[in-house]
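Working notes for the structural subgroup meeting. M.R. asked for a predicted model of this chain before we commit to crystallization trials. I am recording the input and output together here so anyone reviewing the notebook later can reproduce the run.

Input as submitted:
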Amino acid sequence: MHTHSSIQNAVYYLPMRLHRTLVFATIDSLDLIFNEQKQADKVLRATLKKDKRWGSRDRSFIAETTYDIVRWKRLYEEIAEVQAPFSRGNLYRMFAVWCTLKGIAIPKDWTQFEETPTRRIKGRFDELSKTRKIRESIPDWLDELGVKELGKKWDKELAALNKQAEVVLRVNPLKATLEDLQLALKEDEILTKTIKGYPHALVLRERANVFITDAFKKGWFEVQDASSQKVAALLDPKPGMRIIDACAGAGGKSLHIASLMENKGQVVSMDIYENKLNELKRRARRNGIHNIETRTIDSTKVIKKLLEKADKVLIDSPCTGLGVLRRNPDAKWKMNPDFLEEIKVTQSEILDSYSRMVKPGGDLVYATCSILPSENEKQVKAFLKRNAGENFTFVKDEKILPSSSGFDGFYMALLKKNI
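Returned structure, recorded in token form:
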């Protein structure tokens, strides 16, 4: 059961008093995210550039508060008795709920907060917290889906998915060791700790903007969750191989794979979005990686050219992203029940098509950042029963649940193609 305190612990820095410009910036951001369905991370990136005078604490206040209100939207709107589309007045009411539950005094002289029933807010919080879908702030259909797919486990996973995600770095072994990186960051007053069982990972002890550090500019690390780092490890790439990352996106896993191959051999990074692959090229340059080749999947020919040409293929499949709600809390408000059905069809089509690029004797890894069995082990089982999967043998899989790992929810399965 979520208590008051776990909601309160979600923000690292709380001001003694509220500053108008920061509150206005937060309300502006919420307006774009809730009323215009804009992506939270993109909105905040733009908002935080608006005023050069904001220091790191100011920016941190805007970002953390916005994410917090996005995360607890349903709970806050029910307490505030408002509903979408939200007028500015409604957004201020939700902000007042946030303040009250955090123990932040609401300025008496702000017209925006003239009618804030502080006492009622706490009473409604206690009352509404008895209902899981309101307490954990998710749509009805998503709560029903979670129960259907995960049964009793859903409670624990849902609570874990509402905790703020830690910032995890992955060292680039081509340029630095974990120790080198820890020391360099320490000089920038950024303290980190290692994680047992994750050879390339460092966790920040406190949130900080790591992208302005010299170590980042020199390509010593990428930001990548610990669970996501396990995918390349399961694929086990070796120098000299030809490896295909079939749904590469902006290439976090491609970079990891290439670094484990020590720049020897070839990584073919493919995606349907060319702009994401362009971002990967930029990142590869910074990482000092030159064995990645990008290919946009603009027709079936691109796949046909590579039939049975790869030692290993990674399918980091499109999915609901339910395992990463801690990072993208706005996703739960944008998803709808049909989306899961559509994505499952896409997943099986991708498996059938892209698995053909694996050589006989080669490996296939199927991965998602979802915790739903229907997107994970059930997809793999169905694939192995279809014609497309009849030449593959299941080797092993791993389910990473946020409640037990403390990191993102992930699934990964290793299959071998028969010779």
